[in-house]
Amino acid sequence: MVKHVILWQLKDELQGEEKEAVKKGIKEGLESLQGKIPGLIEIKVNKDGLDSSNADLMLDSTFEDEASLKGYAIHPEHVAVADGKVRPYTKNRVCLDYEV
Q1: CA distances to 10, 12, 19 from 62, in Å
Q2: Among positive and negative, which fits the CA dihedral 59, 60, 66, 69?
Q3: H/E element holding 99?
Q4: Whole-angstrom Cα distance, residue 19 to residue 13?
Q5: What is the pLDDT of residue 45?
Q6: Do 9 and 86 form a contact (C-beta atoms < 8 A)?
Q7: Residue 97 has what pLDDT?
Q8: Which residues contact 37 (CB under 8 A, 6 or more apart)?
Q9: Neighbours of 91 (CB within 10 A)
Q10: Mean pLDDT of all residues in the chain?
Q11: How much is the pLDDT for 82?
């Protein structure tokens, strides 16, 4: 199996209710991919980090193998969520992929 973990920082201009709405939209959008993408075993987004965090959201996902992860990256449903709900609002993205 392959883990795909991403940490995002949202753009500085997002504050208060707008920031919470963006975080909720990202979580709902990404988690809605469960069952729609071949090889995607599990996908979770944590949007409620502690005050000590320096990231706003974390994606924790598991794939059958590296080929499944590559397929996810270009899958139209994932691309739609990434382009519509994630990329417009994020200023920084850090990713770690590893085998388990």
Answers
A1: 23, 30, 27
A2: negative
A3: strand 90-99
A4: 9
A5: 98
A6: no
A7: 98
A8: 68, 71, 72, 75, 77, 78
A9: 12
A10: 98
A11: 98
pLDDT digits (tens, 9 = 90+) for 3-43: 999 999 999 999 999 999 999 999 999 999 999 999 999 99
Residues 41-57 as b/e (b if ≥16 CB within 10 A, e otherwise) read eebebebeeeeeeeebb
pTM over 0.85: yes
Q: Which residues contact 81 (CB under 8 A, 6 or more apart)?
A: 29, 30, 32, 33
Nearest to 48 by CA among 82, 28, 88, 20: 20
